[in-house]
Design goal:
The chain is globular. The termini are far apart. Helix 1 (about 10-15) crosses helix 4 (about 60-65). The chain has 9 helices and 7 strands, in the order αααβαβαββαβααββα. It has one domain (about 10-220): 3-Layer(aba) Sandwich (Rossmann fold), CATH 3.40.50. It is α/β, with parallel strands linked by helices and about 230 residues long. The chain binds S-adenosylmethionine (SAM).
Length: about 230
């Protein structure tokens, strides 16, 4: 259970929703137990500007803000109802903002980190790639893009995840998005990030879990965007 149980910052983040309606409170608690947030938070820089794209009710953004008081965290989502549900939580943390992203636009950076947690599978593959390209463009030199999605193996975890997502999106209607899911294999997505000039590491996060959790971290070189010595002398 280590790594799943909320730590002090996790408990504090969940407590931010104490005045929310029971449905939202239940949702953020279920979300905490189903997602490996404790493994993701240390992948963010301890200080600086952090953008979460597709933050939903804002639980991971809230956790990142509480765990890292030196961070300024902005969470955006296309779903105005979810942002409204997180508004009470965000109001309690001065360095946390949750806001609606009209048409899914990526807010201009530079961001020291951009994080995307379980969002891309709701979009067709080309739209996933466009969103990652737009996100990568806003990562500061020396910054990183953290992409948490589901992996492509083992088959039983992939089947379990598809069944659960079908329930959430089509039956319970908890999540906005297309009613088909596109799980792009992590190695394909890693290739997209490399084409955006990021140095990528891939890590499975599914040990002891029924979902095939997986994370890619794309790092932007500190000197990115500066003229090389060859360019500078011409
Ligand atoms: C499964 S939820 C995950 C929410 C949150 N990241 C978490 O881990 O709890 C996916 C979220 O992505 C949002 N979303 C889908 N497409 C988006 C886009 N293009 N831009 C921003 N948010 C998007 C949905 O509205 C939904 O809230």
């Amino acid at each position: 259970m280590t790594g799943r149980r909320p730590d002090a910052a996790g408990r504090a983040a969940l407590a931010l929703y104490r005045d929310a309606p029971w449905r939202e409170r239940a949702h953020v608690h279920v979300r905490w137990w189903s997602a490996p947030f404790r493994r993701l938070e240390p992948l963010l820089p301890a200080t600086g500007a952090v953008l979460e794209i597709g933050c939903g009710h804002g639980l991971f953004s809230a956790y990142a803000a509480v765990a890292g008081p030196g961070r300024r965290v902005v969470g955006v989502d296309i779903d105005a109802d979810k942002i409204a549900a997180g508004a009470g939580a965000a109001a309690r943390v001065p360095h946390l903002d949750l806001t609606v992203a009209p048409d899914g636009a990526v807010p201009a950076g530079p961001w020291d980190a951009v994080v995307v947690v379980d969002v891309l599978y709701l979009l067709p593959a080309e739209a996933q790639r466009r969103l990652l390209t737009a996100a990568a463009a806003q990562v500061a030199p020396g910054g990183r893009l953290v992409v948490k999605e589901m992996g492509a193996s083992p088959a039983w975890k992939v089947r379990w995840n598809r069944w659960q997502e079908t329930l959430s999106v089509r039956v319970l209607r908890i999540t906005e998005g297309s009613t088909t899911f596109t799980f792009v294999p992590p190695d394909v997505m890693a290739g997209w990030l490399r084409e955006e000039g990021l140095a990528v590491t891939a890590t499975r996060l599914d040990a002891g879990r029924v979902h095939p959790h997986h994370v890619l971290v794309g790092e932007r070189a500190a000197g990115w965007g500066q003229p090389t010595s060859a360019t500078a002398t011409t």
